[in-house]
Amino acid sequence: MELKNSHYKKTIIVQPQHLDEVQHVNNVIYVQWMQDIAAEHWNTFVSEKLKNEVLWMIKRHEVDYFNQAFLGDELQMETWTGDYTNVTWKRHYGIIRPADNKKIISAASVWIPLDRKTQRPKKIDEEMINMFA
Is residue 3 part of a domain? Predict the structure, then answer.
């Protein structure tokens, strides 16, 4: 099932610690940013009850790289949730550079919710679904 859901956006300014040896954003940094924005999106919209009950674990990442980003670039990052099953939820990501409207990456991850106490997979229920509907 696919949800019509809210998108979450943030602006990132590329810093020296984000760069690799060829002076563009390191691929590992994009994955870190994906994890960070997913957590921010979750923490912005869910109840304290769900924050206390649910942890998320990555099952899969897919990243397509289109253009490089460099020191000082202002980037617009966006995430939104997509298809889900009983125990997996797909999340999408995009990064553009507004200065020239270049797409930097397009990505998706599959996340598994875990019960915070048992650390076992937790069924995606109506309460979780309704947070992003």
Answer: no
